[in-house]
Amino acid sequence: MKYLNYILIIILLLSNVKADCLSMYSSYYNYQENFDLFDYVFGDDNCCDEFPVPLCGDDRIYFEKEDYADYTDSDNWDVISPNVAITRANSRGLYNAVVETEYQSGSPVGTLWSYSMYFGATPSTSIAPTPPYVNWTTWAYVNTSNQPFVRSMYSIEDDSYYDFLVTGWTQGDGDGGATWPGSQDGNGTGNGGGFSYYRSGPIDYSANIINITDVPNDQGGRVYINFKRSMVDVNSHPHGLDIYTVQRLGGPNNWVNIGSMGATGEQTYTYEATTLADSSVHGDGLIAFRVIAQSFYPDLVEVSTSAVGYSVDNISPSVPQGLSLQWVSGNIELYWDSPLDNDFHYFILERSSVESFESFEPYHTIENYYLDQNVYDNQIYYYRLRSVDYNGNMSDYTELLSSNMMSADNSYLPNTFSLHQNYPNPFNPKTQIRYDIKNDVNVRIDIYDLNGNMIKTLINENQSVGYKSIYWDATNDYGQKVSTGVYIYTIQADNYFRSRKMLFLK
Hints:
By secondary structure, this protein is mainly β. The protein has helices at residues 2-28, 37-42, 47-50, 136-139, and strands at 61-65, 78-81, 84-88, 94-96, 111-114, 149-155, 160-169, 195-199, 208-214, 222-228, 243-249, 255-262, 268-274, 287-296, 299-303, 307-309, 324-328, 331-335, 344-352, 361-365, 369-372, 380-389, 401-404, 418-419, 431-437, 441-449, 454-463, 466-472, 485-493, 496-504. It has a five-stranded antiparallel β-sheet, with no helix packed on it. Strands 11, 12, 14, 15 and 16 form a five-stranded antiparallel β-sheet that branches. A four-stranded antiparallel β-sheet has the order 20-19-22-23, with no helix packed on it.
């Protein structure tokens, strides 16, 4: 029992840590001077693991200029971009060494500052409760407790935001003001110009696409877009994030919205997106996607870096049905049913003289008929058939079909009644209807329209066992051409009855 109590205590402690981090995270974006960002980032609570802020990132840098260091030497500048390099002389405030030689009113030129963290605020525009981005001087002396303080900077030329955690600032004046943490020169005439801070890289609140993977076990046309949440996608955030919108590249610079999902504070998200094409032997199928993180107040729109992926048709087509043969004038006629799959590409018919198919002759066709004229007496031939779709997937083989041209038995004869799909279908001017008869019987084949009216009787007679076929030329019993449309053909043989549809086009 005592171990259980220990476990409960640990769970409670961890819960409190996460709750504290959540509260601190909210405070970070609704900044209070007493918020200890240093502890948040570098403390033992691992807040960065659960609720990252810009200074948690791997691109965080530490910069320090020591007291009285040569401020004209670029080694003592924090070169942030080609447009901004921050330093300080032996007294007064910061300036931009790229465009300035000393501190002046409006320094650092080319930058604006806020005592709160960036959250999509337009520089110099107050969007409550986010303070405006203004001149550095406005906020330079907010800190009076000689403790680390936070500033956010906007680089105007670069259109980029950065967060600063100032950890040291030598201050004082001719009257011998306080020093933190440096020291004056001893006579109260200078302060050394020392300062130090941690700085984030350019702040990016966009989602981050982790990968794009194919949806498995489907007919293609779909992928999973897996992405990491935006940094501000936390329920307790004072502004919050509303939605993620997924876009697909439909042409040069033509990004199209294909769907959206709510921002709910998850560490990662998965969105199932449609593609424009599958990857196959006929093309690479690469398609670009991106994710937009959006909050409606204040107006935040962050676009992720695009990523590419592809979908795959990984379902094999159906095994062909109805493979049969018959002998006609010393040749072998093979028939099978029309394909059932929408993505059907072609059939592969294989013939071998050995049952093991150690060697074989393949024949590719889109038809469901083949006349094998290369046959010889006293030779057994084996046949098998498979389907191939447009993405190169192959079906399993049919069962082996064999024949002996001089066989005395009837092993090659059908052992069931069957009615096969007509070919061609749709058709004009005529189509072939194949059927199998397993014993001598009266056979009747009729044509009907969709209203159930009989159009024509093709055959009504006794027939012997075998593989049979008959043609219909789209005429009725009076020899008149029928109208374009769908028709039903039926067979009745003994107790066997079956019907199928066919389409006549003029």
